[in-house]
C-alpha cells in the first residue's frame, strides 16, 4: 500500500533524523528488492523503443550533433567499459553518453509524459540509467529494475510537488529520480543513494526561463544535464562524499527558498516496502511531436478537418477553453508574443497551442518535421487563421486536469469556432487518441510502428530489426547485449549533420 510522507521545512535547531528525510525515503524505495511486475516490464520495453524512435529522428539536428560531439570528445573513464553514444559505434564516459543521448531523446519533444502537480517526461530517466548499465556491465534484469525506480520516483514527486508555480524547471524532479534509479541498478545501499539524490537535486534546480519567450536549444539540453548530474552525483556518493542535508526540508533548503516557503508542507506518495513500482503505468506517450498538452488538441483538429474546411476569411475567432496549465504555458495566457510569430524557433512553436491547432486544423494531422518548417509557419493563410486563435482558462477543465481519478483526468478542452456568418462550431476532447483512455490507445505495435517510421530515414532495416530484437528481450539481456542496446546510423547520415567544434 502506498505510504504518504508529510514533508515540511525544519529549522536548523529542529532535529530531523536522516531516516525521516525525503531523500532517504526515496532511497529506501530504491533499495526495496520487490519484483518488477510483468505489466511494468512490458511498458518499460515500450518506452525504451519509444526513446530510440525519437532519438533516431533527431540524430542530424544541430543541438544533438553538438551534444554528441561533446560526448565523443571525452574518453571512456577508467573504471568501466564506457557507454554507447546514439548514432555511432563509439563509446564515451557514462555521464557524457547520458548527456548526448538525453539531448537526442528530448530534442523533438516526442516521448512520454506525466502531468500532475508538475510536468515531466519520465522517459528522460532512460539515458542516464542505461549509460551506467552499459558502463558497469549490468544485465537486462538490473536495467529493468533501475528504470522501474526512476519512473516511480519521478512520477511520485510530480504528483506531489509543484515546481513551475515558482518558475523552477521541472527537471529538478529528474535529478533525484535518475540518481535513485542508478542506485537500484547498482545495488547501492540506502545511505549512499540518499546522498546521491540530495546532490542531484541540489545541482539541477534552475529557472523555467528555458521554456519561456523565445525558447532556446537549451530546452532539450536541460533534462540531459539533469541526467548527467545524476550520474556524477552517484559517483561522488559512492566515493563516500556527502551532500547538503536535509536538501528538501532544510531551513535554507529547496522547499523553504525555491518552492512554497518556510511554512510549506507537501504530502509525497511513495510505495510501501514490498509494494511494486507501477508508476510508469500512469504515464503516457505521444503520437505527435508536440508538447503533451497539445496532443488532444491535434486529434480534435484532425477530426474537425475531416468534417469541413476552415478558410480564414470565414472564421471570426477560435477560442480553446482549457486548463490553467495549457492556457498559461502554451496558450495565449502566457502573454508571449513569440507564440504568434511566424519566424519563431521550432522550440517556441512546439509550445504554441494557437499555432499547433491552426496547422493541424488546416492539414488534418501533424508531422514532426514538416509542421515546423519555416515555410509552413509563414504560409499566409496559416498566419491569418493563427492570429484568430486564443485560449481561455476553464475551471472545469482545470479541475479535471488535476483530478486524481484516472477516469476523469483530462488534458484537452472545448473549442468554440465563431464563423463570420455568426454561426458557431463547438466540440471537445478530454484525452489524446493515443492515451490509455483515448480512441486508439498506444500498444506495442504502435510503439514499433513509431520507431520504424522515425528510424527508417537514418537506420538500415537490419539495424532497426536488431535493436527491436534486443529491446523486446530486455529483461533477459546479458551484459554484453545491454551494451549493444544502441542505434547506429546508416553510412553517410551523420556526415550530413553539423560538426561543431568547441573547447574540448
Descriptive overview:
The model has no long low-confidence stretch (mean pLDDT 96). With 504 residues, the chain is an alpha+beta fold. The protein is built from 20 helices and eight strands. Helix 1 (22-31) packs across helix 8 and helix 2 packs across helix 4 (94-106). The chain has helices spanning 22-31, 38-57, 62-72, 94-106, 126-136, 140-160, 174-186, 190-203, 218-238, 254-258, 295-305, 324-330, 346-350, 353-363, 374-377, 380-386, 395-402, 444-455, 461-472, 479-483, and strands at residues 3-8, 83-84, 91-92, 265-270, 315-322, 389-393, 413-419, 424-429. The strands form three sheets. The chain has a four-stranded mixed sheet. A two-stranded antiparallel ribbon has the order 1-4. A two-stranded antiparallel sheet has the order 2-3. The protein folds into two domains: 3-282, 2-methylcitrate dehydratase PrpD (Orthogonal Bundle); 292-429, 2-Layer Sandwich (60s Ribosomal Protein L30, Chain: A). This is MmgE/PrpD family protein. It comes from Microbacterium memoriense. Residues 288-471 form the MmgE/PrpD C-terminal domain. Residues 21-265 form the MmgE/PrpD N-terminal domain. Belongs to the PrpD family.
Number of strands: 8
Query: What about the largest sheet?
Result: 4 strands, mixed
- Residue ranges: pLDDT <50 for 5 or more in a row? none
The number of helices is: 20
The helix content is 40-55%
Beta-strand fraction estimate = 5-15%
SS content category: alpha+beta
**SSE string, helix = H, strand = E?**
EHHHEEHHHHHHHEHEHHHHHEHEEHHH
Terminus-to-terminus distance? 49 Å
The averaged pLDDT comes out at: 96
CATH class of the largest domain: Mainly Alpha
* CATH architecture grouping of the largest domain: Orthogonal Bundle
> How many domains comprise the coordinates?
2
Rounded to the nearest angstrom, the radius of gyration is 22 Å
Domain MmgE/PrpD N-terminal: 21-265
InterPro entries: MmgE/PrpD_sf, MmgE/PrpD_sf_1, MmgE/PrpD_sf_2, MmgE_PrpD, MmgE_PrpD_C, MmgE_PrpD_N
Organism: Microbacterium memoriense
Protein name: MmgE/PrpD family protein
Amino acid at each position: 500500500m502506498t505510504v504518504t510522507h508529510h514533508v515540511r521545512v525544519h529549522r536548523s535547531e529542529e532535529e530531523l533524523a536522516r531516516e525521516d528525510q525525503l531523500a532517504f525515503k526515496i532511497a529506501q524505495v530504491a533499495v526495496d528488492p520487490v519484483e518488477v511486475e510483468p505489466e511494468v516490464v512490458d511498458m518499460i520495453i515500450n518506452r525504451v523503443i519509444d526513446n530510440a524512435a525519437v532519438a533516431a529522428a533527431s540524430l542530424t539536428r544541430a543541438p544533438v550533433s553538438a551534444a554528441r560531439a561533446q560526448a565523443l570528445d571525452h574518453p571512456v573513464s577508467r573504471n568501466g567499459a564506457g557507454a554507447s553514444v546514439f548514432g555511432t559505434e563509439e563509446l564515451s564516459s557514462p555521464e557524457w553518453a547520458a548527456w548526448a543521448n538525453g539531448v537526442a531523446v528530448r530534442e523533438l519533444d516526442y516521448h512520454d509524459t506525466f502531468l500532475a502537480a508538475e510536468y515531466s517526461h519520465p522517459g528522460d530517466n532512460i539515458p542516464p540509467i542505461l549509460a551506467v548499465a552499459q558502463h558497469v556491465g549490468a544485465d537486462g534484469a538490473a536495467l529493468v529494475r533501475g528504470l522501474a525506480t526512476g519512473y516511480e520516483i519521478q512520477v511520485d514527486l510530480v504528483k506531489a510537488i509543484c515546481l513551475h508555480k515558482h518558475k523552477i524547471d521541472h527537471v529538478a524532479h529528474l535529478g533525484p529520480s535518475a540518481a535513485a534509479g542508478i542506485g537500484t541498478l547498482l545495488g547501492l545501499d540506502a545511505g549512499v543513494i540518499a546522498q546521491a539524490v540530495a546532490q542531484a537535486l541540489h545541482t539541477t534546480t534552475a529557472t523555467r526561463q528555458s521554456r519561456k519567450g523565445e525558447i532556446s536549444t537549451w530546452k532539450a539540453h536541460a533534462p540531459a544535464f539533469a541526467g548527467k548530474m545524476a550520474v556524477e552525483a552517484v559517483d561522488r556518493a559512492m566515493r563516500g562524499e556527502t551532500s547538503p542535508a536535509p536538501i528538501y526540508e532544510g531551513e535554507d533548503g529547496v522547499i523553504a527558498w525555491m518552492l512554497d516557503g518556510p511554512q510549506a508542507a507537501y504530502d509525497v506518495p511513495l510505495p510501501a516496502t514490498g509494494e511494486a513500482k507501477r508508476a510508469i503505468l500512469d504515464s503516457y506517450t505521444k503520437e505527435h511531436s508536440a508538447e503533451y498538452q497539445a496532443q488532444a488538441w491535434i486529434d480534435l483538429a484532425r477530426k474537425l478537418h475531416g468534417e469541413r474546411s476552415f478558410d480564414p476569411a470565414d472564421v471570426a475567432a477560435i477560442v480553446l477553453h482549457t486548463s490553467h496549465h495549457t492556457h498559461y504555458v502554451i496558450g495565449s495566457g502566457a502573454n508571449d508574443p513569440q507564440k504568434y510569430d511566424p519566424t519563431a524557433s521550432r522550440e517556441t512553436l512546439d509550445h504554441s497551442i494557437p499555432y499547433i491547432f491552426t496547422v493541424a486544423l488546416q492539414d488534418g494531422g501533424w508531422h514532426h518535421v514538416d509542421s515546423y518548417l519555416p515555410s509552413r509557419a509563414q504560409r499566409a493563410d496559416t498566419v491569418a487563421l493563427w492570429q484568430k486563435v486564443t485560449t481561455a482558462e476553464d475551471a472545469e477543465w482545470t479541475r479535471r486536469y488535476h483530478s486524481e481519478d484516472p477516469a476523469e483526468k483530462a488534458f484537452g478542452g472545448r473549442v468554440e469556432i465563431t464563423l463570420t456568418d455568426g454561426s458557431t462550431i463547438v466540440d471537445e476532447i478530454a484525452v489524446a487518441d493515443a492515451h490509455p483512455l483515448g480512441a486508439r490507445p498506444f500498444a506495442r505495435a504502435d510503439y514499433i510502428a513509431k520507431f520504424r517510421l522515425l528510424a527508417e530515414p537514418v537506420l538500415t532495416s537490419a539495424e532497426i530489426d536488431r535493436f527491436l530484437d534486443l529491446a523486446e528481450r530486455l529483461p533477459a539481456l546479458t551484459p554484453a547485449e545491454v551494451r549493444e542496446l544502441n542505434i547506429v546510423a546508416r553510412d553517410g547520415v551523420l556526415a550530413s549533420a553539423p560538426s561543431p567544434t568547441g573547447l574540448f
